[in-house]
Design a protein that fits this description.
Layout: H1 2-10, H2 12-15, H3 32-48, H4 70-100, H5 109-119, H6 132-143, H7 146-152
Helix pairs in contact: 1-3, 1-4, 3-4, 4-6, 5-7
Length: about 160
């Protein structure tokens, strides 16, 4: 879903924003390459979700006919989580960039707080530059719970059933 939202943000037909979220899309590639990166990571995660147990083999001189592949499953899960952090980081960067084109208007207070958090590490995208450091900076914000800590203060933490 994150990658699909990114597609809609980068597509001027869907978003009414400049193509690839950059002022001069003919001169600058904008978020075109990060979108391709996100799509590639989504595809990689699809392959990582294939059940490892389907690749079982007999071992121990034919005495054990099932090997769970649990270790490999755990490594694939960790890789998928890291990929997802990068996918979400790219989407968050694109969302912040989209807000640049809506200024001086503002969004909700929690989203403005996240926007401000991202802007402490990543400047708005004006012309082509490598995204590697920007993606990693925001991925670390996600991994370290900085994004969650920023928005959690706006969330009602009481379970819904406690209200009845």
């Amino acid at each position: 879903m994150s990658e699909r939202r990114l597609e809609r943000l980068c597509n001027p037909t869907c978003s009414n924003l400049p193509a690839f979220l950059v002022e001069s899309p003919g001169l600058n590639s904008g978020f075109m390459i990060p979108h391709c990166t996100s799509a590639a990571l989504v595809s990689e995660n699809k392959t990582l979700c294939f059940p490892s147990s389907a690749d079982t083999q007999s071992t121990s001189a034919g005495k054990e006919d099932h090997v769970s592949m649990g270790g490999w499953s755990a490594r694939k899960a960790l890789k998928a989580v890291k990929n997802l952090e990068n996918i979400l980081a790219i989407e968050l960067l694109a969302a912040c960039q989209a807000l640049e084109f809506r200024r001086p208007h503002h969004t909700t207070e929690p989203l403005e707080a996240v926007y401000q958090l991202v802007r402490t590490k990543v400047a708005p995208y004006v012309e082509d530059r490598a995204f590697t450091d920007d993606i990693e900076a925001v991925r670390l914000m996600i991994e370290s719970n900085d994004v969650w800590n920023t928005v959690s203060q706006y969330i009602d933490h009481d379970p819904i059933w406690a209200k009845f």
